[in-house]
C-alpha cells in the first residue's frame, strides 16, 4: 500500500513538472507493475489529477515608491519659517556686539532631502547654509539691524524665506559711556574765580 502511494506521489510530482497540457496515463505491465507515462500508445488509463495550486509572486516595493510623497512634501513647503529671537523692535544691550539669532521651522527641516538654513543680516547672507536653527552674529555695530532666514534646497535655490525682523543694539563707547541718548552725564566743573588784585597803596 505504501509502495503504491509513493508511486502515485511521484507521478503527481512528475505531472506538476510537466507542461500544463500534458496528460498522465496509468498502465500495468506484464509483471503487474504500475507504470505512469504521458504516452497514450500503451492504452493506459488517463488519470484525473487535481488542479495545481499556484502562488502569486510577491509584490516587491520599489525604493522609489516614496518619491511622490517626498515631492509632494517639498511642493507643499514649510508651514512656518520665522525668526523667533531677537523679537521685532527689541532693544539689545551687549558691549561685545554679539547677537544670537534663533529660527523656527515647522515641520522640522528636511535634512535628508538636503534642505539647509541661510541666515541674513541687513539683507546680506551670513556664513554658509547649515542645518543649525540658531547662529551667532559677532561684533555688530550699534544701531538698528534686521535679520532673516531662508530655506535653501539641495540645488542651492531658495524655496522659502522669513520676514525680516528689526532690532536695536546698544553698546557703550568712550564718547557715550552711558549710551548716546543719556541725559545723566555729570555737569562740567564750574570755572575758578579770578585772583584778587594786589594793593598798590604805600605807607
Keywords:
203 residues; single chain; 12 strands; six-stranded mixed β-sheet; Immunoglobulin-like; alpha+beta; three-stranded antiparallel β-sheet
If you had to describe this structure to a student in words, what would you say it looks like?
Helices cover 13% and strands 32% of the residues. With 203 residues, it is of the alpha+beta class. Among the domains are: 2-46, no CATH class; 77-170, Sandwich (Immunoglobulin-like), CATH 2.60.40. The protein is rod-shaped and about 175 Å long.
Q: What would a concise description of this structure say?
A:
With 203 residues, the chain is an alpha+beta fold. Helix content is 13%, strand content 32%.
What does the overall shape look like? rod-shaped
- CATH homologous superfamily assignment of the domain at 77-170: Immunoglobulins
- Main β-sheet, in a few words? 6 strands, mixed
β-strand amount:
25-35%
CATH architecture of the domain at 77-170: Sandwich
Helix content: 10-25%
Query: What gap, in angstroms, lies between the N and C termini?
Result: 171 Å
Total DSSP E strands: 12
In the predicted model, the low-confidence regions spanning at least 5 consecutive residues are: none
Secondary-structure element string: HEEEHEEEEEEEEE
Compute the number of helices.
2
- The CATH topology label of the domain at 77-170 is Immunoglobulin-like
Radius of gyration: 46 Å
CATH class of the domain at 77-170: Mainly Beta
The average pLDDT is 78
Helix/strand-derived category reads alpha+beta
Amino acid at each position: 500500500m505504501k509502495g503504491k502511494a509513493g508511486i502515485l506521489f511521484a507521478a503527481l510530482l512528475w505531472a506538476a513538472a510537466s507542461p500544463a497540457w500534458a496528460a498522465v496515463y496509468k498502465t500495468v505491465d506484464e509483471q503487474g507493475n504500475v507504470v505512469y507515462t504521458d504516452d497514450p500508445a500503451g492504452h493506459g488509463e488517463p488519470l484525473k489529477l487535481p488542479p495545481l495550486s499556484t502562488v502569486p509572486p510577491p509584490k516587491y516595493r520599489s525604493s522609489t515608491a516614496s518619491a511622490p510623497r517626498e515631492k509632494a512634501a517639498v511642493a507643499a513647503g514649510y508651514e512656518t519659517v520665522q525668526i523667533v529671537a531677537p523679537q521685532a523692535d527689541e532693544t539689545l544691550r551687549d558691549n561685545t556686539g554679539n547677537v544670537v539669532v534663533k529660527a523656527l521651522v515647522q515641520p522640522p527641516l528636511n535634512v535628508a532631502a538636503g534642505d539647509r538654513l541661510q541666515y541674513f543680516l541687513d539683507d546680506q547672507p551670513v556664513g554658509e547654509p547649515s542645518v543649525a536653527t540658531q547662529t551667532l552674529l559677532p561684533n555688530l555695530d550699534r544701531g538698528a539691524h534686521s535679520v532673516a532666514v531662508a530655506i535653501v534646497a539641495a540645488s542651492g535655490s531658495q524655496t522659502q524665506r522669513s520676514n525680516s525682523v528689526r532690532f536695536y543694539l546698544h553698546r557703550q563707547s568712550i564718547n557715550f559711556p552711558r549710551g548716546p541718548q543719556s541725559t545723566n552725564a555729570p555737569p562740567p566743573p564750574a570755572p575758578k574765580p579770578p585772583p584778587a588784585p594786589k594793593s598798590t597803596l604805600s605807607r
